[in-house]
Amino acid sequence: MKKLNILGYTYTIDMTKALEEMEGNVGFCDFDNLQLRVANDVPHGVKCSTILHEIIEAVNYHLEIGLKEPQIKQLEVGLFQSLESSDVSLSMLLFEPFIINHTGTHLCNCTTPLFEMGRETCLNCGGIRVPVKVENYD
Q1: Among 3, 1, 53, which Cα is nearest to 25's?
Q2: What are all long-range contacts of 7-15, with beta carbons under 8 Å and residues at least 24 apart?
Q3: Where is pLDDT greater, at 124 or 31?
Q4: Which residues face 5 on adjacent strands?
C-alpha cells in the first residue's frame, strides 16, 4: 500500500474496500491507525478529490486547527479544482508507480496495454506511468 508523510506522521493509503463496505463513506481518515481510506469503486476523479479531503482532515487534526467539516469540504473543492485546472495530477497520491516496458504496454496489476500519447495515467487502472531508462533490454 502507498504511504504518505503528513506532518511527520506516516499514513497508509488503503483502497481495498468498496463504497458499500465503507458504509457509504467515500473516504475516512483514521488518526489512531494512521490510515487514509478511499473507496476503490468510485470514479478516479472522486478518489483524487477524496484523498485531498482526507489529507486536509489529517492536517486539521494534527495541527489542531479546528476546521469544521463544511470548511474542510470547501478547501477540498477549491484546492482540487485549482490543481486539476492547472494540470497537476493527484493520481500519484493514490497509486504506486509502475514501469513502461519497451513495447509500450504497462507493468501494473491490469492487463490492458492502453496509453494515449501525452497521458500520465493508465487508462485502465489509473496507475502512474513512470518513464525509466532500460539498458540491455531484449
Answers
A1: 53
A2: 7/58, 7/59, 7/62, 7/63, 9/34, 9/58, 9/62, 10/34, 11/35, 11/36, 11/58, 12/36, 13/37, 13/38, 13/51, 13/93, 13/94, 14/38, 15/39, 15/40, 15/47, 15/94
A3: 31
A4: 10
Q: Is the pLDDT of residue 138 over 80?
A: no
Residue 101 has pLDDT above 50, yes or no: no
CATH number of the domain at 3-91, please? 1.10.10
Cα torsion 25, 30, 36, 41 to 10°: value is -30
Indicate the domain borders of the chain.
3-91, 95-138
Q: What pTM value is reported for the model?
A: 0.71
